[in-house]
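ingest -> validate -> predict -> emit
validate: passed (alphabet ok, no gaps, 268 aa)
predict: started
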Amino acid sequence: MGSYGFQVQAMGVPAGLGVPPIHNQPIVKEGTIWMPIPPPLPNCPPGLEYLTQIDQILIHQQIELLEILTGFETNNKYEIKNTLGQRVYFAAEDTDCCTRNCCGPSRPFTIRIIDNLGHEVITLQRPLRCSSCCFPCCLQELEVQAPPGTPVGYVVQNWHPCLPKFTIQDEKRMDILKIIGPCVVCSCCDDIHFEVKSVDETSTVGRISKQWTGFLKEAFTDADNFGITFPMDLNVKMKAVMIGACFLIDFMFFEHAGDNQQRTGVWQ
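emit:
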């Protein structure tokens, strides 16, 4: 019975002819369903073709058992999925042990994002910067490269006395979008939304949401789930930069959720 309620008739294949390959089908690797590989597109960095087909992605941080049992900070790992649950990318932090455990969530990091072919298609680099808005000359910043070594955009924290605010810039440092978070960043039984707005902040074009994951997970781990929405026709480079912004927000406000030192705003 077909998915539309009618009977699908079996059809034979004439002798001597092979069955034509089925394109655009999900790929299963080691039990994980990956999003189908899209064809290459002109003027699109290799590996970002996936982003042309989606307007929403989900980011799931993997729970590290060693971190739960010992409190020893390990490199973060994330699954990046589409709304069908198919993995689009896999992201892994590449930071040395000393930096992770001495600098905590303020640490500089490199996050490498790979596709289903194992190719590193996006690199996120965060330098060591001040974590307090009392020092507006040295606020947070993140560079997004696609492919690795080629900057396509930046996420720059903007000084504000009350609100978490960021600017998404292109490779020429031109302002493209703004991100504005809530005054109190506290995940208590509800999602937390960071609105993505036009440069003049008059219209909302997307959202980065930290999703509530339940009392046990919120209390004992710093493994977070995020959702990102953006216009389907947004430049794929800016979609990649929005992914980078999500990781920066995670480290700034939610990386300490498991040890009761979570930041609740720009002053903490």
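The mean pLDDT is 80.
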